[in-house]
Amino acid sequence: xxxxxxxxxxxxxxxxxxxxxxxxxxxxxxxxxxxxxxxxxxxxxxxxxxxxxxxxxxxxxxxxxxxxxxxxxxxxxxxxxxxxxxxxxxxxxxxxxxxxxxxxxxxxxxxxxxxxxxxxxxxxxxxxxxxxxxxxxxxxxxxxxxxxxxxxxxxxxxxxxxxxxxxxxxxxxxxxxxxxxxxxxxxxxxxxxxxxxxxxxxxxxxxxxxxxxxxxxxxxxxxxxxxxxxxxxxxxxxxxxxxxxxxxxxxxxxxxxxxxxxxxxxxxxxxxxxxxxxxxxxxxxxxxxxxxxxxxxxxxxxx
Length: 303
Description:
By secondary structure, the chain is of the alpha+beta class. It has two domains: 5-184, Jelly Rolls (Sandwich); 190-303, Homeodomain-like (Arc Repressor Mutant, subunit A), CATH 1.10.10.60. The protein contains 13 helices and eleven strands. Strands 2-3-10-5-8-11 form a six-stranded antiparallel sheet. Helix 2 (118-126) runs parallel beside helix 5. The longest helix is centred in the last third of the chain and has 19 residues, at 240-258.
């Protein structure tokens, strides 16, 4: 069996960038991008008869993002079905094959990545909680496609140091659209698309001057207190009230920085009647008291 088998007839509108070896070596020597950089990338629309087989894999990460149609990826005895909205990352040196569905061929944006962070990228994107490999579904985003086009067009201008830096420093933001799609996509508040956690955070932001409770927050998103608390911690890593207090202190920093309010007045603006409690809360989060924060920021105002 040959080390590589490829079959296609070419695809109208296809685009591909093949980064030269000497440029890849240059990327390895550039500290800002040596952890993750592109070695190949491309776009195959309606890729009828698209097929690759690599019995020994390759040394880079392969990222396949399907935006239309269907296809498949074969890893050992596991076949992963791909459809519009699916993304999958193949680990380096993994034997594999993949191809387009013959009746409804996929449209894919794809990358080959190299660098010291390749395995971390796979772990972050795939977030595999099952024993069997499976594609990850993400919402479509025009911004994600625009980022792809921006990187591609930058490479078309050549492999100058500035072009290599710009294209490859864009990768983390592009990958964030797969790792954290709920943060990446633009939510329309009130449209019903925002998650309960994001609606709860919006409620907190709108009530920073109030002394709200956990029950208040849970009721704002129509969830039981216990279920909401578990879900919120799972999504953010914080208990709801702890998160609310972080938002409060963030607002306090703005007030201390941009206003002439006394410390007790800042506390009152945040719905905290006890200035001593406010100072303790502030110092716990920021490492200094409100007065010390104002002083170290170079703002000498009445306290």
